[in-house]
Amino acid sequence: xxxxxxxxxxxxxxxxxxxxxxxxxxxxxxxxxxxxxxxxxxxxxxxxxxxxxxxxxxxxxxxxxxxxxxxxxxxxxxxxxxxxxxxxxxxxxxxxxxxxxxxxxxxxxxxxxxxxxxxxxxxxxxxxxxxxxxxxxxxxxxxxxxxxxxxxxxxxxxxxxxxxxxxxxxxxxxxxxxxxxxxxxx
Length: 186
Fold this sequence. Notes:
By secondary structure, the chain is mainly beta. The chain has one helix and eleven strands, in the order H-E-E-E-E-E-E-E-E-E-E-E. The longest helix has 10 residues, at 2-11.
């Protein structure tokens, strides 16, 4: 627990502004929040929490017809926020999440994953990065490789929790537009 708290302090950075998702390519990605219901889909790769999501906090549509649906963002009593959702390949080519690792070289150990995701607290002017284990791997879904056309896979990412008063943050993933999500209490 002390190691996790230390990691939370170390990885919580200051910074202003949203710092976009770094869109590339000709497709016009979009993000939208919705209150509709959906059921979780995809195979569990073993490192994703087993809860089946039923709520949609946001949907992000990016290049190559990749869609990220965020189903929950839950603050727990240990000082963490766990974001869960589903990645869907609506395109015609196999998708690998290599570009979602981010630019930080230390996270390359996480491979194709959502290691580059951040939560941005605009009001508090802070960015919260995905937590890491003692081997430098993200506390997130890894092995997001060979996602076939029309296939969906669940994902999760764990972050240090913003202050209790902060309930809305932007979820940002490299190459995708940001999406506003609401943090709930676990």
